């Protein structure tokens, strides 16, 4: 039986993988089906010379990626409203853009509480940008998006 902490770690890993998959899809043109198959086959729990990849929660991973693609226009509009007018989503770092799409998908299409989504994706930002100010930026934008998507949660 999987412990509660292991389940939480698998969900966190699924979110990180979703951001990576969305980034890769944007740059490679791969389909949702091929990218999810690739990640589930070659990344979830895989061991390489560089180290071991965490086991991800496949259902959450697939849901985030599929919803991010299917609802991308809505999510991008929400993100644009949360950003300063001079910085539309197509001008921000592609990793952060993928992160906003993944977080927006979970926030708008799944039942995850907005505060959980914000905390989890701020952690993802720290994983990609450990030395920078990106985590604070991500926190502010996601907070704005969450208040628009689910105002009753605040």
Structure commentary:
There is one protein chain. This protein has 154 residues and is mainly α. It has a single domain (4-153), classed as NusB-like (N-utilizing Substance Protein B Homolog, Chain A). The chain contains 7 helices and 2 strands; from the N terminus they run ααββααααα. Strands 1-2 form a two-stranded antiparallel ribbon. A hairpin with a 2-residue loop joins strand 1 and strand 2 (51-52). Helix 3 crosses helix 5 (94-109), helix 4 (72-82) packs across helix 7 (134-149) and helix 6 (114-128) packs antiparallel against helix 7. It is globular, with a radius of gyration of 15 Å.
Outline of the structure:
InterPro entries: NusB-like_sf (IPR035926), NusB_fam (IPR011605), NusB_RsmB_TIM44 (IPR006027). Belongs to the NusB family. The protein has 154 residues and is mostly helical.
Task: For the structure shown, list the relevant keywords.
two-stranded antiparallel ribbon; 69% helix; 154 residues; N-utilizing Substance Protein B Homolog, Chain A; single chain; mainly alpha
Terminal-residue CA separation? 34 Å
Over the alpha carbons, how many angstroms does the gyration radius reach? 15 Å
Shape: globular
Name given to the CATH architecture: Orthogonal Bundle
Domain tally: 1
Fraction of residues in helices?
A: 55-70%
Strand order of the largest sheet: 1-2
**Which range does the strand content fall in?**
under 5%
- For this structure, the CATH topology is N-utilizing Substance Protein B Homolog, Chain A
Low-confidence stretches: none
From N to C, what is the helix and strand string? Answer: HHEEHHHHH
Structural class: mainly alpha
Q: Specify the biggest β-sheet.
A: 2 strands, antiparallel
Top CATH class: Mainly Alpha
pLDDT average, as an integer? 91
How many β-strand stretches?
A: 2
- Number of helices, counting only DSSP H or I runs of 4 residues or more: 7
Domain NusB/RsmB/TIM44: 13-147
Family: Belongs to the NusB family.
InterPro entries: NusB-like_sf, NusB_fam, NusB_RsmB_TIM44
Function: Involved in transcription antitermination. Required for transcription of ribosomal RNA (rRNA) genes. Binds specifically to the boxA antiterminator sequence of the ribosomal RNA (rrn) operons.
């Amino acid at each position: 039986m999987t412990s509660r902490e292991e389940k939480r770690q698998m969900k966190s890993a699924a979110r990180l993988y979703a951001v990576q998959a969305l980034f890769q899809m944007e740059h490679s043109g791969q389909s949702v089906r091929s990218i999810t198959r690739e990640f589930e086959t070659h990344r979830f729990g895989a061991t390489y010379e560089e180290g071991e990849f965490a086991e991800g929660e496949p259902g959450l991973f697939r849901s985030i990626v599929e919803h991010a693609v299917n609802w991308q226009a809505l999510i991008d509009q929400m993100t644009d409203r949360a950003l300063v007018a001079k910085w539309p989503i197509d001008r921000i770092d592609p990793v952060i853009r993928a992160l906003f799409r993944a977080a927006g998908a979970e926030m708008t299409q799944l039942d995850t509480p907005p505060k959980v989504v914000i905390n989890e994706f701020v952690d993802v930002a720290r994983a990609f940008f450990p030395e920078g100010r990106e985590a604070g930026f991500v926190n502010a934008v996601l907070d704005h998006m969450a208040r628009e998507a689910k105002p009753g949660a605040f």
